[in-house]
Design goal:
single chain; alpha/beta; 5-stranded mixed sheet; 27% helix; globular
């Protein structure tokens, strides 16, 4: 399991790093990590899913935890196909969307197996509990 974690605050990225953030399907990147992605890392207004500049959007605002799973699985597949990037997953779903790390972390269990995906420390702690 991971021993390196996503930094708590990300203000800049190395050349090969991608900022992974929670979004809404409408791509209205007005708050939280989505706003940072929009202001700093190339997130595109009106696009709520996938790679955008140096960021990757995972929708979290459309319902319960299970509605997020397909988007996390899609992200994992993308990360597997792009080993040249290091993906810094933020605490997606744990801000404006209102979920807890214990609810969201299990969605990233398979992604955590990839060498190029970093998770927040509290996500990793939640995965270790299970």
């Amino acid at each position: 399991m991971l021993t390196e974690y996503t930094p708590e605050w990300i203000t800049e990225l190395k050349d090969n790093e991608i900022f992974v953030f929670g979004s809404n399907l409408a791509g209205a990147h007005g708050g939280g990590a989505a706003r940072i992605a929009y202001q700093r890392f190339g997130a595109i207004g009106g696009r709520g899913v996938g790679l955008q500049g140096r960021s990757y959007a995972i929708p979290t605002m459309q319902g319960g935890v299970e509605t997020i799973r397909p988007y996390v699985d899609e992200f994992r597949d993308f990360a597997m196909q792009h080993p040249e990037y290091k993906f810094l997953v933020t605490r997606i779903g744990c801000g404006i969307a209102g979920f807890t790390p214990r609810e969201i972390a299990p969605l990233f269990k398979r992604a955590a197996e990839l060498d190029n995906v970093l998770l927040p420390e509290d996500f990793v702690a939640a995965l270790r509990e299970k």
